[in-house]
Design goal:
Keywords: Membrane, Repeat, TPR repeat, Transmembrane, Transmembrane helix
Strand order of the largest sheet: 4-3-5
Subcellular location: Membrane
Main location: membrane
Protein name: HemY N-terminal domain-containing protein
Structural class: mainly alpha
Strand content: under 5%
Organism: Desulfuromonas versatilis
Order of helices and strands: HEEHHHHHHHHHHHHHHHHHHEEEH
Amino acid sequence: MMIILAMLLVVIVFLAAFIYFLGLNPQEVTIFFYNDFSLTSSVAVMVVACILVGLALGFVVTVFTVFASQVRHWKSTRRDKKAREITNAYQEGMSRLVSGDTRKAQSLLQKALDRDPKRIDAHIALADVHAQAGDAQQGLKQLLKARDMEPANLEVLFKLATAYEATGQPQEAVKTFEQILAGEPANRKALAGLRDLRIRLDQWSEALDLQKKLAKASQGNGEEQKRLVSLRYEVVRKTIAECAPDQCKAELKELNDIIRQDPQFVPARVTLGDAYKVAGRREEASKAWQQGYRATGKAVFLSRLEDLFLDAEDPSSLLAIYRGMLADRGDDLMFRLFYGKLCLRLEMVDEALEQLSAVENAGVQSPKLHLLLAEAHRRRNRPEDAMQEYKKALGVDKRLHLGYACESCGATAAEWQSRCGACGSWGSFSLEGRQIIQQATAKAAEAREIHHGERAE
């Protein structure tokens, strides 16, 4: 009621103002719209008409603006609702994926993609679902769709490289890594991924080139420098294996340089001695391996030395080397073990017992040590001592325990266990050698008694 009265008051005021204005301006005005058409009216009427037309236009514009705003709001609400539904489907799908429900995860993520086919994260997640479900090929197809939409998306490209490897397409994986590096030459993840792929493909030179870039980009990273040494070695090792023994001077120099850079890098020292041996340079091979053992204490060098001199039927030179080393390495139990083994091979049984007993008295309990001691006692015609050492080597105690082994991973235990501590499987422990015994039993069962009068076939 108040609104109607207010509007009526406005109209009355407007009419009063119009009459007052009309009384002050009684003259008329003629307006020509074109040559033959004009309109004549008082000034007051013209002014009021213009005001009314302006109000009408303003009203129309206001109504149109409000309507357009409502339409935009409606569309925005629909978009937001759709986006929320898609996001909810995606998030629930990811939750299902994490929980291992790949079937439900695939359904939800596919629903999100049906609503928004250009959602890259949903394509990536669906590819992960396929990979987790063991369908690497379908996951690859999903990632290819994502790449077509965003060719420079790094997450897509990295996962695509992994998918190519999983589907047995290493060269395509290489191209994918190279595509990443074309846009970002210093991308460490791409450099490392491509390097590892080159290593798996035995492409050592290419891997070394990539490692040099990584080492340069990761100055101060000790692991990258160590890997650089390792790859340098692999390149040299491959070249030595392919070239004639007398044509490997540059490679031998490179091996020596690697040893200077990393004195503890065992493969380079072993290969250096091997190269000298193949080339007929026995003294240099012996020197390389002796230096290798002194620097690292690794048993492989003693094995190499033993084979070198015994193959050449020159045990006296090896004995001289060992006896010279004994003065400096009397507390080196590994050296004394190999020295005792050598003496045993040369029928120097007393000296062998002396060295091996020193190792045993130091607290070393090793099946190999006990086997060597048993053999030494046997050759000295000490059957009881030999038997005791054989029992220690076999792990046989007074109760004649035979021991158990996990059929899943091979871990051993003196007593049966319900669960393997190494691989976590239950009920997998059985008697060591059970399969061999069962096979032998099966073969024995194949033989049967031939009855009187029956011919064997």
